[in-house]
Structures are given as structure tokens and as C-alpha cells.
Amino acid sequence: MNTNSAQAKKPPAKQKERVIMGLQAMDFIQHGTEASLEIVTPLGQRLNFKSNFIGFDDQQHIFFTMPRLQKSEYEEFFMQGFNVDIEGISEQGEGALVRFRTRIEHVVFRPIQLLVFPVPQQAKLVLLRNEVRYELKLPGDIQLSNRKLRVVLTDVSSGGCGFSFDAISPEFDVDTKIVLEVINGFTGDTYALSGAVKNCRKKRGKQNYGMVFDEPGKANCRRLLSNLIYDGTKYVFKSPKKDQTPGA
Questions:
Q1: Which domains are assigned to the chain?
Q2: Which residue among 24, 66, 73, 103 is the one 20 to 30 A from 56 at the CA level?
Q3: 3-state secondary structure 188-247
Q4: CA 161 to the chain's CA centroid
Q5: CB 211 within 8 A of CB 197
Q6: Does residue 178 carry a pLDDT above 50?
Q7: Do the strands 148-156 and 160-165 form a parallel or antiparallel pair, or are they unpaired?
Q8: What is the pLDDT of residues 79-95, one digit of tens each?
Q9: Residue 33 has pLDDT above 60, yes or no
Q10: Would you say residue 177 has pLDDT above 60?
């Protein structure tokens, strides 16, 4: 039975949404990952902002960075007991949104700025995709108007992929059409993964994007997947010296 090929059989379809315990939800959000937060006042006023997840402790506290806002917004919204809706992205498995509601427990300004919330009793896990996503670390290029942007293809599935780069710019808007070219270092073949940007998040100084393939992009992705093999930690290009996939 072939267990190493990137063309492995898809697992059974899983339910799109499920409820998990609050502390378990923390394991799905990586430290340093950007999340979306919304404070809701007792009068129904709302404030949306981005913040980075720092982590949690054994006292069931979770910690987020403080956003840069106006002084009046701090005074109006950052009050102990106000509800906060939090949404983060999990990179595990098929990928998911982690959503939960908690409340402001502490707003720390000194010696460091910090938001402290209690761990929620439960959270909602919403699966983003049905197909398997393969972990990669392949170099690629995106042609800009005046230069090529070197990126790293971080994961790929039959319908889309993720990529990242260190540069502060450029920034791609959602629905921007792009072509990410990956070259097979063994054969010289080029795989033009074309499609549209669907999400962006910043993590540890890197810009991380997700894109969805169009039909030509899907066709080239199938070609790419057929030439990958699992090396024990991630998927890489097959060596031309290996005529058969291990485990076949």
C-alpha cells in the first residue's frame, strides 16, 4: 500500500464544525499568530482589532498583545468584564478557524502592555477545507510589475496553497490574481500555480498568505503533487534516480 505519495487517498469527509473545550482550543492556535478580536460593550458597541496570541498559563489565563489605538478607544472599550469575541486560524490538519467568547480580566500597561482573558469554557472549531493539505518548504517566485518576489511555498492541496515571505512589502489584497511559479530542481519543470489571494496574516515578522487555484492552477498543482514524495518531515521533489515511490 502506498503511504508516502502525495497522491494518497483522501480521508473520509469530516464534519465542518465542532465544539471543543476551551483549554483544548488553545492548543490549536500557535504562539505568535495574529488573531481577530472584537470587544462588545454592555450597550452593544463594538471595536474590532488585530492582536497576537502570546500563550496561556496554568492559572487558565490567556494573553494577547495590546493593539495600537486611540486613547479614547482604550477608555471606552478596555474595561474589566467586557465581552471579547476572538477568532484565530489553526494550521493543524486540514486547517480551521477557532472561535470563542471570553471577557477582559486585566488590561496591563506597565511594565509591558498586555491583554489578559480567562480561558473560555468552550470554543468552536470550523474546518476550512476538506482535502488534505501537504506541508512543504519549496522556493517559488511571484512576478511583480518590476521584479520577482521570492517566496516559500509552505503547504499545498488540490484546491489551494499557502506561501510566505520575509519582506515588509508588497502586500496583496484579497482576490488579487497572482501566479506562483515553482521549479523542480531535478528536472527543471515549472509549475505555474495561478489563482487568487484569499487571506493574509502576519506571524513572527513573516507575511503569510493563502490562495485558491483557478482551473489552470489546479491542473499544474496536480502535476506538482505527482512529483512529490514524503521525506519523513515534509513533501519534497522526487529524485529522478528513484523510479518508484517508496511503499508502492
A1: 17-127 (2.30.110.10), 134-237 (2.40.10.220)
A2: 73
A3: CCEEEEEEEEEEEEEECCEEEEEEEECHHHHHHHHHHHCCEEECCCCEEECCCCCCCCCC
A4: 10
A5: yes
A6: yes
A7: antiparallel
A8: 999 999 999 877 654 46
A9: yes
A10: yes
Q: What is the mean pLDDT of residues 1-13?
A: 41
Distances (CA, A) of 133 to 37, 85, 145, 203: 27, 28, 30, 20
Please report where in the chains the cell 496554568 appears, as a residue.
Answer: 58
pTM greater than 0.70: no
- The full DSSP string for 145-202 is SSSEEEEEEEEE-SSEEEEEES-S---PPTT-EEEEEEE-TTT--EEEEEEEEEEEEE
Contacts of 172 (CB under 8 A, 6+ apart): 178, 197, 200, 209
Q: Phi-psi bin for 16: left (phi > 0), alpha (psi -120 to 50), beta?
A: alpha
* Residue pLDDT, tens place only, 181-192: 999 999 999 999
